[in-house]
Amino acid sequence: MLCGGSYLRKAGAGRSIIEGLKGDMSSEPNPEPDERGTIIYVGQDKAGHWLVQDSGRKMEGRFVSRGAALSFAEAERQIYRASLEIVSAPLVPLISFEPVIPAEHALRRAA
Predict the structure, then answer these.
(1) Are 69 and 63 in contact (CB under 8 A)?
(2) Organism's domain of life (predicted)?
(3) Contact (CB, 8 A) for 92 and 86
(4) What is the domain range of residue 41?
(5) Is the CB of residue 53 less than 8 Å from the CB of residue 59?
(6) pLDDT tens per residue, range 11-25
(7) What angle do CA 18, 40, 21 make, to 5 degrees?
(8) Beta-bridge partner residues of 46
(9) Which residues, 6+ apart, have CB-to-CB distance to 11 below 8 Å?
């Protein structure tokens, strides 16, 4: 848990993150699809890195601060008319922070 408590704040499509700060309460992101469409989650992983992820598991951003993560998430929310949820339960990174082991080779060029 982050900040010593369990809470979830939402901003639905068409509402700013500030307006959404008074939203529903929960402790974990809900990965089940629903009628709301895309949901953008903002939170920290177990190591304390700030992450932004979407409910379709197609997007992830890593940030050095909560403010940077929220700015990115708000911009994405507006572009995709998504809902925004700030979660206190740890997010699981889609891409590992672990260093590449010697047996693995990096691609010379991006696809």
Answers:
(1) yes
(2) Eukaryota
(3) no
(4) 8-25+36-87
(5) yes
(6) 444 444 434 443 444
(7) 20
(8) none
(9) 17, 18, 19, 20, 21, 23, 74, 77, 83, 84
At 46-104, the pLDDT tens digits run 999 999 999 999 999 999 999 999 999 999 999 989 999 999 999 999 988 787 777 77
The structure tokens 């304390």 sit at: 48
Q: Could you give the dihedral angle defined by the CA atoms of residues 50, 53, 59 and 61, in that order, rounded to the nearest 10 degrees?
A: -10
CA angle 62, 84, 16 (to 5 degrees): 110
Residue 92 resides in a domain: no
pLDDT at 45 over 50: yes
Measured CA to CA, the distance from residue 41 to residue 39 in angstroms comes to: 6
**Residue 58: CA atoms inside 13 Å, Cβ hemisphere, count?**
4
Residue 13 falls within a domain, yes or no?
yes
